[in-house]
Structures are given as structure tokens and as C-alpha cells.
Amino acid sequence: MILFNILIHFFILCFFYLYKQKFPSSFFINIAFCFYIFICFYIFFISKQNKFIKNFIKMLTFIFSAVFIFTLGTIISDIHNSKSEKIKNEYVIILGAGLRGTEPKKILKYRLNKAIKYYKKYPDTIFIVSGGQGKDEIISESKAMKNYLLKASIPNKNIIEENKSNTTLENLLFSQKLIPKNLYSVGVISNDFHMYRVKFFAKNIGFKLNPIYADTPNKSKVSMFLRETLAVIYYKVKMTLEKWSFTL
């Protein structure tokens, strides 16, 4: 019966992937499914193996849990220790996020509203709206972001579009090319859950940025922080392995 349930869930996920080219949007559905698969795998395979294998699996689970908790704590600590908006920036990069039709989703609106608030304080700021067009998006994220800012009475001359990027790292790399060299200060706006990874990437490419933290919608806090923790672990491991392979 358990094996039958696994197969049913597997075919459902395959259907979503083939039909929409992506897994179901709910973070918790994916996490719950992965946890379910792990339990079933443990029941059918691990529990029947010898003591060494069981202890090895337990050790891996403990290590991952410890790394996950430490990373999540680091992200939260960074938010509480680093929030500051006292620095005036000549250029400010606004990082893109998902759209709903031609309108920014709530996560992205929080970033844009932060930019609008910042503009009212520093009206000479030049904003770079950074984000390309995803496979399921009607227009580029940068275009939607620009339209949103224009509606808020930010002049067209204060907005530069970067519409080629598809990842956070590309946001920074492509936006950096649009900024005059040797500027006094450059800022970046993103939601608080995302900023630690932004700073991590910026440090790795030698791009000095002043973070401007936008809030995260309350309904999205848990899922965004958990997802971001996994993303930070993934990119840190990936970039560490790349550095090792380069030195070898």
C-alpha cells in the first residue's frame, strides 16, 4: 500500500513537471512529499540493513539538520544586525521576483514599495530594476517593475532596466555593468529573507553594495525563510566545490 502511494505521488509530480515545466508551486507540498519519500525509503530499505548503514544515515541526518539550523540562524541574525538605511546611494538595484500576469507578486511589491519610500527621501537616486522574462511570464520582471515605479510618480529618467538576468547572481553581474565605475555608493533592495544570499554573491564577485532591507509578507515568512536556507546551503556548497576544483 505504501509503495502504491509513492507511485501515485510520483506520477502526479511528473504530470505537473511535464505540463508546467516545474514542480507544484507550494513549498510545503514539495517538502512534505520529500519527507514522505524518506520515511518510506527508511521503512523499506534502511531499517532492514545492518547497524553500520543505519548509523551512517542517522549521522548524515544529524549533520544536515545542524547545518540547516545554523544557516537559518545566520540569516535571521544578519537581518537583525545589519538593517540600516542611513547611507545615501547614488544608484540602487532592485532585484526582481515573480509576476502575476503583468503585475508584480506581493514579494516583489514589498521591494518596490521600499524603493518608492527610499525615493521620497532621496529623489536623486537612480534605480536599476533587474529581472528578465521567465518562461511563464508575459513580460520581463524589469518592465513590470518599471511600470510600477512610474505609476508611483518616479520619473522615467530615474529608472534603468536590466532585463536579461534569470538568477540573483546574474541580477548583480548584469546590473554592475550598467553602473558607472568609482561611484561613492551603490545600494541593493531585496526582502530581508533574501539579503544574506545577495551579500554572499556580491562579496564573491567583489561588488560592494549597501543592503536596503524590504520586509517579507507575513503569510510568506515561513516558506521563504525555509526555502532560502536551503538555497544558501546549496550555493555555498556549490561555490566551495568550484573553488576546490579550480585550485586542483
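That was protein one. Protein two is written in the same sequence-then-structure order:
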Amino acid sequence: MTISVGDKLPELTLKESTSDGMNEVSTADVFGGKKIVLFAVPGAFTPTCHLNHLPGYLQSRETILAKGVDEIAVLSVNDGFVMSAWAAATGGEGKIRYLADWDAAFTKAIGMDMDLSAGTLGVRSKRYSMIVEDGTVTALNIEDTPGEAVTSGAAALIEQL
């Protein structure tokens, strides 16, 4: 079942690279007591994710934060080292949280998993964005086509803030 507006996010563990190394971070810590913009991509460094989706959030960071958002996070079914390398390659370190759902547990728990084995990617996340307030989804935007970043893009999300 796909998560919906009004639903609470499940409590699971993600990975995140910090100055202290690779750390486990609970979704309760990421989303609890804060207003978070989360967007998810099928894969770090993949064309649409790397060239279209992520750049919009980096460029719109100040506008999003000025609307009362505490943090912006990107999530992908990749390992933490890939997400760390992606943060470095995009200049996003310290600007956006790069969260690794290495085993797709979070993605599956919210019903956002899809099988991209035909394209050699395996199980990945659908492309989406959401606004989460104290762990509860208050807006949700799911792309119909994984190769597009319009419905879940920064410009569309800013209109919802």
C-alpha cells in the first residue's frame, strides 16, 4: 500500500555519511519535530536524478528554507558511500541530507518501490517528493514516469509550501 497524505512515516534506519563517518540514522530522528522536504530518486548519478531532479532542489534551497522548512533531504536505494560521493560531486554536502535506503526497507514500507531490473537497476524507489511535518506526510507528489522530474520537482513543491 502506498503512503498517503496524513500517514505517519514508518520508523526504520537509513544510512548517512557525516564528518564522523558512515552512520545509521533513524527516520524518527530525521523527521521528528521538524518540517522536512524529502524527495526520492531511482538512483544517484542516473541522468534524470543527477541532471534534473537534484539540481532544482539545490538551486531552490534558500527559497524552500525561507518558507519554514527545517531541512531538505534526498533519498535513494543506494549504499551510503554512493550517496556520499553524489553529495560531493554535486556540491550538496551540508546543504541537503543525502540518505541511503541501502536495502530498500523504507522505500518498500511506504509502497514506493519499483522493479527496474529490465534496466539493470534492480529494486529502486519511485521518483517522488513530500513534505513531512513531525513524521506525518502533509503533501505527496509521485511522478508517473521515472524519467521525468516535474510533479516531484522543486518548483512544484515550492507551490505547496
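The CA atoms of residues 30 and 36 lie 8 Å apart. Keep this in mind for the problem set.
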